[in-house]
Amino acid sequence: MKNIINSISFILLGVLTMSCQKQNMHSGNSMQEQIASLPKEAINIEERNGLILMREEEKMAHDVYSFLYDKWNIMIFNNIASSEQTHTDAVLKLLDKYDIDDPASGKNIGVFNDTSLQRMYNQLLINGNYSLLSALTVGATIEDLDIYDLEKLILKADNQDIAFVYNNLLKASRNHMRAFYSQIVYNGGTYRAKYISQQQLEDIVNSPKEVGSWKKSK
């Protein structure tokens, strides 16, 4: 009976994440148009460095989730990897707009300029290879870091287009955290916040899923 329940749960999860993937494809097109429509403003060094960091951080998330999907064949990894591709493409659009060299240009899967991200990627693959529960915990850890970094970068982002992208990425990261956390609990595990506060984590996972808004409000 438990096996049947587990199978049904993962089928439902697959349906939900496939729906999210389709939404991400459409939101990706809207994102490209929206970034182009917002003004190109003077960019400071903190905004520049933030874009370089997030380009590689979102790429790292994509590369880890792709590896975990190949290892465990669970749709949550495949569909969130697709979402992360949309995210890193959004940051690349900003890099191109502001004539900033792309740190991920020519880089294969799992290769990064940022040495801290490279070490993290290497360790997360080791952790995620151990068990499905460990792999889900890797997902929560990545989203934990994303939320932490995006919240800091939003405070430093004066440019409308950069703030717009970061805020949408932050909504998505909180949704990803909700998804990973629920699966961790379902599989008998727990997750403690590593970057954000534990209270913030609990607030996120106990609140409803957020709707992204790549399109500007009128």
Q: Quaternary arrangement of the chains shown?
A: single chain
Would you identify the CATH H-level superfamily?
Answer: Ferritin, core subunit, four-helix bundle
CATH class assignment: Mainly Alpha
Net shape: globular
Distance between the termini: 51 Å
Strand residue content: under 5%
Low-confidence stretches: 1-28
The overall number of domains is: 1
Amount of helix: over 70%
Report the CATH topology name: Ferritin
Query: How would you sum up the major sheet?
Result: none
Query: How many beta-strand runs?
Result: 0
CATH architecture: Up-down Bundle
Sheet/helix structural class: mainly alpha
Describe this structure in words.
- The protein is mainly alpha-helical and 218 residues long.
- The protein has one domain: Ferritin.
- The protein has helices at residues 2-37, 45-72, 75-97, 115-128, 132-156, 160-186, 198-205.
- Helix 4 (115-128) packs antiparallel against helix 5.
- The longest helix has 36 residues, at 2-37.
- The protein is globular and about 50 Å long.
- It starts with a helix and ends in a 13-residue tail after the last helix.
- Mean pLDDT is 88; it is low at 1-28.
Identify the notable features of this structure and list them briefly:
disordered N terminus, mainly alpha, globular, Ferritin, 218 residues
Task: Detail the topology: elements first, then pairings.
Layout: H1 2-37, H2 45-72, H3 75-97, H4 115-128, H5 132-156, H6 160-186, H7 198-205
Helix pairs in contact: 1-3, 1-6, 2-3, 2-4, 2-5, 3-6, 4-5, 5-6
